[in-house]
Amino acid sequence: MIRRQRYRLRTPSTGREVLIEAEPGKTYRDRDTGEPLEVVGKVLPLVESSTSQLPWAVENLRFCPHCDQMVEKDLNDCPYDGRRMGPLVPAQ
Above 70 in pLDDT, residue 91? Predict the structure, then answer.
């Protein structure tokens, strides 16, 4: 399965933002206003650097217990030291 880079796009008039997997050179339009969306930036992690599907945000990250680096919650192995991380414990 080919993964495309995710981008954050914004509607200029309303300021509403959306995260989508976009293709370079293609124009995306707001579903309500019909105006073209502006590219605000690439969403981390970049496609070529991680196997995670989650964007880098505080609620999607955890610390590796071995190297103390922040990694995405949906990864089983730390991308920095390659060691297996324990299961997530739900918040009480």
Answer: no
> From CA 87, how far away is CA 77, in angstroms rounded?
11
Domain ranges of the chain: 1-43, 51-84
Summarize pLDDT for 28-83 with one digit per residue, the tens: 999 999 999 999 988 776 666 666 767 777 788 899 999 999 888 888 899 889 99
**49-85 CB burial, b ≥16 within 10 A, e <16:** ebebebeeeeeeeeebeeeeeebbeebeebeeeeeeb
Q: Which of 68, 77, 23, 24 has its CA nearest to residue 50?
A: 77
